[in-house]
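Quick log. Single chain, no ligands specified.
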Amino acid sequence: GAPVTVVGVHSAKFDNEKDSSAIRAAVLRYDISHPVVNDRSMSVWAALGVSSWPTLAVVSPRGRLIAMLSGEGHRQDLEDLITAALQFYGEKGQLDGSTPLPLALERNKTQPGAAASPLRYPGKIASDVAGGRLFISDSNNHRILVTDLNGRFIEQIGGNGPALGDGSFDSAALNRPQGLTFSPRRNQLFVADTENHAVRCCDLVAKTVVTLAGNGNKGRDYRGGRGGSAQPLNSPWDVELDASEDYLYIALAGQHQIWDLELSSGTAALFSGSGAERNQNGPTPFTTSWAQPSGLSLAGDGSG
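-> predicted structure:
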């Protein structure tokens, strides 16, 4: 590949995020394979003049800052910048593409308790008490485990990921699923398939998985109104049914909104949130704001 080295610098927002063990856990959770620096004292942050999370800094082979890009959505700008830098520094003979970095990946080290557990960073659970079932999103194994209420294995959904694929429980693919909700009336399990940017439906009778919304790509639609693969989503993190089990609420953590999906029509659209990351109440969807909503629960009176 191109002689480009990626280094993550973790400058913590909160005190508990300064702990190296917490950073190590995050590296393992997200299968990170590049070096990560714990900028505990914010010294790298200050030296580069960073002012917001996330910020991308492009540095020359001799350590000179070339550019900084703050916020998200700069992929094309970054690719163009790196392409130009590679050509410029390559012509100057300053690139070394043959010396590998001496990396020791955390995932290749023995982790305490890892061998004893079949789970890898399970995200969320749902239950079917009447049917005696527990559903576990085994996020980093890209699957849903179905057990009895004592945790004894019944069946597996997916496990062929990270990928996006419909089909039977054995052939379907997920990508770090998180939130789950069970519909007793339909005997179906709904899944926030987070890194597929999709919402999936698992039919527990037919033993099949279908995609209700999303297509594997991060969406930038803040209003919605479509369904299936035509309706992109952005990092759905949880799902919850309304009292009628006809509408599915979706926490879109990636764009700070809550949507709902009408199951009869398959249409998904904005329910609440302007898309700005803040704490703000309001009488309309676009005067209300959220900050990375990642959990939903229906009120006892069914009001949401």
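The domain at 125-287 is CATH 2.120.10.30 (Neuraminidase).
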